[in-house]
Amino acid sequence: MTRDQRWPLDLVIFGGLCALWSLVLLARVIFDLRAGTDPFEDVLLGVKFYGSAARVTMAIQAVTIATFGVGMLTRKRWGLVLALIYMAQVIAGHLVFIARNFAVESQRIHVRVASLEFPVMLLIALYLWYRGRAVIRGTSV
User: Fold this and answer.
1) How much is the CA Rg of the chain, to the nearest whole Å?
2) Rounded to whole angstroms, how far apart are CA atoms 76 and 34?
3) Which of 8, 61, 71, 87 is least surrounded, with the fewest CB atoms within 10 Å of its CB?
4) Digits of tens for pLDDT over the chain (141 positions)?
5) How buried is 59 (Cβ within 10 angstroms: 0-12 exposed, 13-18 middle, 19+ buried)?
6) C-alpha angle with apex 35: 41 to 66, nearest 5 degrees?
7) In the prediction, which pLDDT does 38 show?
8) CB crowding 74-103: b at 16 or more within 10 Å, else e
9) How far apart are CA 77 and CA 72, in angstroms?
10) pTM (global) more than 0.85
11) What residues have CB less than 8 Å from 8, skipping those under 6 apart?
């Protein structure tokens, strides 16, 4: 059995879903798909960006997600490693955002959303780590 054939199917499917999600993010950036009339906003590394800066950070995230998604679809180990690094950034970013904005009244709803998203992001990261351990080590799945 070759190295490419030892990938769990669920990780390959996850990579495909990530590639599709990156297209949604790029569509938001290109076609200005916003919910409501608020300015375009994005959070990267726990820092909130607005307007053009938010478009750039969202585009960077979309390209990163597409990269590791395609890497996982093509069963490349670096795709899984990049996904784990990205998820570590997401988890750290959620913690930083919550800590920085906990007492900011205007960010209360966003802190609440980040607090609700955090366990889900942690579970996704743990899932990737658990399912990808053998792939990263290069041992049989």
Assistant:
1) 17
2) 34
3) 8
4) 344 457 999 999 999 999 999 999 999 999 877 666 678 899 999 999 999 999 999 999 999 999 999 999 999 999 999 999 999 999 999 999 999 999 999 889 999 999 999 999 999 999 999 999 989 888 755
5) middle
6) 60
7) 74
8) ebbbebbbbbbebbeebeebbeebbeebee
9) 7
10) yes
11) 131, 135, 141
134 touches 80 (CB < 8 A): no
Secondary structure (3-state) at 50: strand
End-to-end CA distance of the chain, in Å? Answer: 11
CB count in 10 Å sphere of residue 33: 11
